[in-house]
Amino acid sequence: xxxxxxxxxxxxxxxxxxxxxSAQTQKFQKWTVYNYSGGPSALTFNDSQNGLGPVCSxxxxxxxxxxxxxxxxxSDGVKSPxxxxxxxxxxxxxxxxxxxxxxxxxxxxRYLISxxxxxxxxxxxxxxxxxxxxxxxxxxxxxxxFDLTGAKAALKSFDKISDDFLNRQQKSSxxxxxx
Length: 179
What we know:
Structural class: alpha+beta
Distance between the termini: 43 Å
Radius of gyration: 15 Å
Order of helices and strands: HEEEEEEEEHEEH
Shape: globular
Strand content: 35-45%
């Protein structure tokens, strides 16, 4: 139940949903794909209740890779390098802190990971565990690890759902765009 609430928070974190129902989910081992009206997501959670995965937003008509963490604080608007280690190699991307949200009395900090396509490729081409080293103000690092078991199948399902979602958004949106 808590993981479903946290998954809903991913949507709330982007302003896209307020509730996820079990009828809108698909389970792929350690990953779950959520298909709610504000945008789909594919998420995994570790033993510390940190979440990782791609999330789409109807507010921005875009998808993002996000980390949601109750234990790794960040300041809204701050960008920092993130070191990623996985079976496919080691990488350096940038995480953008988008503030925090309260859920069930716990504060969760939101990190959007830069370079969506690269993060997607890393997750799809790796197996086992993936680790993220996030620098802290104290000079230390917080290391978050996630299990990629089921990620390939979950991300394949997410890709189809997110493509359909973004196509619907683009066809029905009257928001200004820049070409």
